[in-house]
Design a protein that fits this description.
With 150 residues, the chain is of the alpha+beta class. It has one domain: SMI1/KNR4-like, CATH 3.40.1580.10. It has helices at residues 2-10, 27-37, 43-51, 71-80, 83-86, 133-143, and strands spanning 55-59, 64-68, 90-95, 100-105, 112-117, 127-130. Strand 1 and strand 2 (64-68) form a beta hairpin. Helix 2 (27-37) packs parallel to helix 4 (71-80). The longest helix has 11 residues, at 27-37. The protein is globular.
């Protein structure tokens, strides 16, 4: 379902532009990243990685930018931001193309998606976005990013 929503976001109905979906990740690539972080990604995110691989675009009608990084960049992006040290049990998977990072919060099961500013100093700064990638992709076109605390 997440891959269908991603395709809808990438090429809205009535669009005349051609859309070539990105290449998906292999099971080995996904498993390598999971082992690095000591987690198992939620099934909908794993399906997204295997089928779509990544995305990055302004999403109509709300117009917010949504990026979901390719799995082969996830380890490097987390290391560059010192995420494992600053936010134990966090895995950055995307963002808003600027300062905000889309993060799986593995402190609880199932992990929710939260937004963290790149300069945040701790978990209290996390802004809840959705319980799953499928839910995020479903609500994003109308709501965009939520900057409400709580």
């Amino acid at each position: 379902m997440a891959e269908e929503l991603c395709l809808q976001l990438a090429c809205p109905a009535g669009s005349s532009r051609r859309y070539d979906p990105p290449m998906g990740a292999s099971e080995a690539q996904i498993t390598k990243v999971e082992r690095y972080f000591g987690v198992r990604f939620p099934d909908d995110y794993r399906r997204f990685l295997a089928t779509q691989g990544s995305m990055g675009q302004f999403v109509p009608p709300v117009g917010d930018y949504l990026a979901i990084y390719p799995v082969d960049q996830v380890i490097e992006i987390n290391q560059a931001g010192s995420i494992p040290e600053r936010f134990p049990q966090a895995v950055v998977i995307g963002g808003d193309g600027s300062r905000e990072l889309l993060v799986y919060d593995f402190r609880e099961a199932p992990p929710a998606l939260v937004l963290l500013d790149i300069s945040a100093e701790g978990w209290p700064a996390a802004l809840y976005q959705a319980p799953s990638l499928t839910a995020l992709l479903g609500q994003f076109p109308q709501r965009g990013w939520s900057f409400e605390q709580g």
